[in-house]
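Reopening this ticket.

The earlier resolution said the output was attached, but the attachment link was broken on my side. Pasting everything inline this time so it's all in one place.
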Amino acid sequence: MLRVVSTSLNPSRAAKHLGRPLEAIRAVQYQAYDSGFDQDDLAEARRWRVSFDEKTLPKGQTTYSRSSGPGGQHVNKTESKATTVWSVEELSKSLPKLIRSALRTSRYYAKGNDSIIIQAQTQRSRSANNEENHQKLAKELQKIYREQVPEKTSSEKIKKYEALEKSFHSNRIKSKKQQSSKKAFRKGKGHDE
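Inline output:
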């Protein structure tokens, strides 16, 4: 199994679109997917996922404004649109390392103030819109987790990849020896004349 990402983008644009630096993209043959990661970081991220609770996330700073769209006179009179801002630094304190590094690739990331900004205006009440922002943040963090943290590789797969790697190396050595003997034969070392 070969994991290679090829792209026609220049390296800086490719890193932006892929969500991680190009050096981190694996082009390794016959290797279990999670073997290229730091096992302590993986364990930390997996423990975080199991114990994840939306209520433990920071509150962020919420501002309210008038929303647009349907809702009649109520929309025109009340400030029910909720905009919540979480600084990346504040969020990073409660997240594992593998997710922290990918926060800045979120679609809600605002580079200008280095924060995650989420807006909601679908509900008529402020509190409901504020709650919706927190739910969106939780979904975004879970999405980042799924993209950044691989599932645990089973022991059967690890054994399979080890066998494939061993087979690959033995076949490579065998073909090199064949090529060497072919060249030796061409030079006349292989003749008995």
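Reporter confirms the inline version is readable. The longest strand covers residues 81-87. The CA atoms of residues 31 and 63 lie 48 Å apart.
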